[in-house]
Amino acid sequence: VEIDTRTSEVESVTPLPEQPDAIAVTPEALWVTNVGARTIARVGLDDREVEVRGGMPAVGAIASTPGGDVWVGNLGGRAVTLVNARGADFRDPPLAVTVPGGVIDVAAGGGHLWVANTDGEDVPGRVTRVDLATNKVSSSIPVGRFPASVVFGAGSVWVANYGEGTVSVIEAGS
User: Fold this and answer.
1) 11: burial class by Cβ within 10 Å (0-12, 13-18, 19+)?
2) Of residues 11, 128, 132, the one with CA closest to residue 64
3) 41: number of CA atoms within 13 Å, CB side?
4) How far is 152 from 35, CA to CA, in rounded Å?
5) Can you tell me the distance from the alpha carbon of 16 to that of 95, in angstroms, rounded to the nearest whole number?
6) What is the 3-state secondary structure (H, E, C) of the chain?
7) Residues of the chain above pLDDT 90, percent
8) Nearest residue to 117 (alpha-carbon basis) of 59, 155, 54, 161
9) N or C: which end of the chain has fewer CB within 10 A?
């Protein structure tokens, strides 16, 4: 739904496949994961045209990089998937990077993809750092139990540890 912020009136509605879950934005498109359909929808910002890629692993969290790459966390799986790379066609085969635990959330910033992952609610979680220049895991940083959310901002990575009611802070350069 597009709303005119001056008038609060609905300007347009863009239908999507079932169960839209998470969104990310690049300069050209809005990206939406659809959990029930195991798809990712690309909505053009200029024409609102919807393209859908199906057959994805269990899709969940999604993040876009400043350069326009789009990464999706394979919900509960041990991989993140690059579904749209700068200059590539959305329909090109995606690249998957394996991480050491079940993916919960993803964020991009500071030249890295930050992946909150865990092996269960009662064990310490990790944030895995993927170097965006090489698309390889560069480190895995321990955080609290069940890291449910990760964001990048103010030069740091912020992690909400649902399993213990804490927030971890990781300096992006560390």
Assistant:
1) exposed
2) 132
3) 23
4) 24
5) 24
6) CEEECCCCEEEECCCCCCCEEEEEECCCEEEEEECCCCEEEEEECCCCCEEEECCCCCEEEEEECCCCCEEEEEECCCEEEEEECCCCCCCCCCEEEECCCEEEEEEEECCEEEEEEECCCCCEEEEEEEECCCCEEEEEEEEEECEEEEEEECCEEEEEECCCCEEEEEECCC
7) 51
8) 161
9) N
Q: Which tokens in the block code for residue 42? A: 């690309």
Both structure tokens of 33: 């994961």
Amino acid (one-letter) located at 156: S
Structure tokens at 14: 């863009």
Q: What is the pLDDT of residue 95?
A: 84
pTM of the model: 0.87
- What are 156's two structure tokens? 């740091």
Could you read off the pLDDT of 118-131 as tens digits, one per residue?
877 667 899 999 99
